[in-house]
Structure formats: structure tokens, C-alpha cells
Amino acid sequence: MKTIKRDLVIIGGGPAGLSAAVSARQNGCDDVLIIERDRILGGILNQCIHDGFGLHRFGEALTGPEYAQRYIDEYEKMKGDVMLGTIVLNMDANRNLLVSSRKGFTKIEARAIILAMGCRERTAGAISLPGTRPAGVYTAGAAQNFINLQNIMVGKRVVIMGSGDIGLIMARRMTLEGAKVEGVFELLPYSSGLPRNIQQCLMDYDIPLHLSTSVVKIHGKERLTGVTVACMDEKFQPIPGTERDVPCDTLLLSVGLIPENELSRGAQVAIEPRTNGASVDDTLMTSIPGVFSCGNVLHVHDLADSVSEESALAGQFAVSYLGGNITPPVKKVPIQPGDGVRYVLPQAVSGQRDFTLSLRVASPSRNRIVTVKDGEKEVARKKIVRLHPAEMIHLKVKAEKIPESGKLEVSVA
């Protein structure tokens, strides 16, 4: 087994990894390596043939492949290095990687690493969906892959469980391919997806959305024949007497995403339970010096444009680390979510630089003020007309406002 040394290794060649790599090259790092398990770069964007990407980054609506190609072209112009069809088997706390490809095993000793592995979908097993295991049950992303990349139609009569953005987009996609979408059934009393997708993917196609309703059982032996749905109470338990059967041959699951942090956990990277991603500071550095995290492996984003923006910062900070310009701070000021806030990121800051706080609220509301406080002292605030858990909120915080000790709390008032 051969051993190679690299300055910066980026694990993942999707939108996060590509943006981080381009940024690292732009900021002066000539030795950048992207490791991607697929045979091509682009990640999940390759199967997202709908438009809407790039409105913030490029000022125009692009499809997923077009958006990814912008970064691929830029990285290729820089003659960036890539290992395709390569899987990272292990990462340790000393930034050593063991990778596997058709050429065999390779040990890579990296001076810095950026984690950009993305996320995966929850499956029927992950949510303990009752019933048998017939054909016709897919995650929404798997169905998207079959239809958009392999030209395989997965079904003709469809039920969608959960209202995440991929599920909403697939409701429209299945309809355009001639399938009948019986409805989208959401456990929560509000949609999990972006409001624009509710309008463009459901309302524009007369696809019903049933809130506080979920699939409680699936039917069929060889092939799915239908599902039972029921209304849910405040504790997310089925309300007796509200059950009804919905005939269908296909069930798409859009019930949440999980950051791919198996490598991170194996290296003993500290994980934030609220996001299931790494706990990071204001440079996006994890608990292991020289290991950074960005994109959906850090926390699930609503926009690819936001992934790219965050990952560009990760690339910049990784180069600064390699140059000795940033080091893990001796003291950190923790940031925690308060009333009305589901999670915040970063989880701690040094107070040495301005930073952008990212957060999600716990429930929908209107005309509220998001505040960052050091005890009773207000550090930052932002008035927002419409707040929704599906839409990430960004708030700029000045370094001079950050206390030298104590902690910050973010809340909605």
C-alpha cells in the first residue's frame, strides 16, 4: 500500500466539495485533492434536472447539472486534482486517510481536510414504517435517480409520505411523467419544504397536501397495493377513527435527511446532536485541528447556493490554517439556541472575526425578531416578516460585539 502526502484533501465532489476546492485554489493553495466515490463530479446535483439553482450565486436559474458544471469547469481550469471512483474507508484524528479504488488501497497523509460528504435520506426502516416490504417503496431521491438518470419509471399511482423539498419536486416530476399523485401526507401541522415548492410543485398541479396526516401502514406482498393514512394528534399519534386506505403502487418517502458523518464519528469528531453534523467554530473547524466541515454533512441546507457560499468559506479558512494564520482558539464563546430556535451554527466562536450565524426556527411564525444576546446585552438582531423551519436564517455578527467570556443565546421574540 502506497502512502502519499497532500496539503488539502476534500472528501466529496458535490456542490460543497467543488466550491471549497475552487475557493482553496483561489486563495493560494496549489495542492488540493478532491476524493469522490462516484465516477463523475457533481454529487446529487447530477440528478436534479429542475431549475432554480444559482439565483443567488450566479443571478440566473440553472438546473442542478448546469450549476455543478460551473464549478467543475472552474476547477478544471485551475488544473485541480481529483480521485474519482474512490471511497474513503477511514479517517483518524491525525488527518490520515485510508482510501480504496480499483487501483488498490492508498494511505493519504493530509495537512488539512474538508469534510463535504453531503447527506442521505431516511428510509422506511429508519422510521419503522409498519407493514410488509413490497416493491414500490422508494426514497424520493432514489426515485429521482431512477427517472432522471436511468430513464426508469417507478410507478403510475403514487403516494408521497413527508413534504420535504425532494418529495415536493418529485410530486411534480411524477405528474409530468404521467403518473397520478394521490397526495402528499405530512406528519407535522406545516410543510417541511420551502413555500415556493408548495406553490410550484403541488398547488400548480392540483396535488393535495394533507397536514397532520401520515402513512401508518403499507399493504402488498410482491408489489405495493396501497397504504393506510390517518390524522395525527399533537403527540404525533394516530387519531382513532380517522384511518383510510389509499390505493397506490408506489410510495415515495420524503421524511428527512441525515448528514453522512460516519467518517467523522470514526475519527472522534465532536457531533452536534441538534444537527447531526460536526460541532464547528467560526472558521468551520471541527474539534480536530485542521479538519473543517461544510455543506449538508455539517447541517442540512435548503439551497445549494447557501451550500456553495458556506463551503467557499471552508476552503478559505483551510488555506489560512495551512498558512499558520488561524489556529484553534484557546477560549471559545459557546452559542446555544433559545426560545423558538431549533439549532444554531457555529456552536462556538473565538471573537477574533466577524461571522455569519445560521439558524432554523422551531415553528412557522410572522413578524418576529431574532436576537443574539450575551445575558441581557443584545449583540445582534434581525426583524423577519416570515419565519419557517424549512428556510434557514442568516444573521451577521460583529466581532467587537462578542464577549470575551460567558455565552451567547439566540432566540425568537
**CATH third-tier fold name of the largest domain:** FAD/NAD(P)-binding domain
The total of beta strands comes to 27
Shape: globular
Stretches with pLDDT under 50, minimum 5 residues = none
Average residue-wise pLDDT: 96
Question: Helices, strands, pairings?
Answer:
Layout: E1 2-11, H1 15-26, E2 32-35, H2 64-77, E3 81-83, E4 87-91, E5 96-101, E6 104-115, E7 119-121, E8 137-139, H3 140-150, E9 157-161, H4 165-176, E10 180-185, H5 195-202, E11 209-210, E12 213-219, E13 226-231, E14 244-247, E15 250-253, E16 257-259, H6 262-266, E17 271-272, E18 277-278, E19 291-293, H7 304-322, E20 333-337, E21 341-345, E22 348-349, E23 355-361, E24 365-374, E25 377-387, E26 393-397, E27 408-412
Parallel strand pairs: 1-2, 1-6, 2-3, 6-19, 8-15, 9-10, 9-15, 10-11, 20-27
Antiparallel strand pairs: 4-5, 5-6, 7-16, 12-13, 13-14, 17-18, 20-22, 21-23, 23-26, 24-25, 24-27
Helix pairs in contact: 1-2, 1-7, 3-4, 4-5
How would you characterize this protein structure?
The protein is α/β, with parallel strands linked by helices. The chain has three domains: 1-120 and 257-328, FAD/NAD(P)-binding domain (3-Layer(bba) Sandwich), CATH 3.50.50.60; 123-255, FAD/NAD(P)-binding domain; 332-413, Immunoglobulin-like (Sandwich). The protein has seven helices and 27 strands. The strands form seven sheets. Strands 1, 2, 3, 4, 5, 6 and 19 form a seven-stranded mixed β-sheet that branches. It has a five-stranded parallel β-sheet with strand order 8-15-9-10-11. Strands 22-20-27-24-25 form a five-stranded mixed β-sheet, with no helix packed on it. The longest helix is centred in the C-terminal third of the chain and has 19 residues, at 304-322. The termini are far apart.
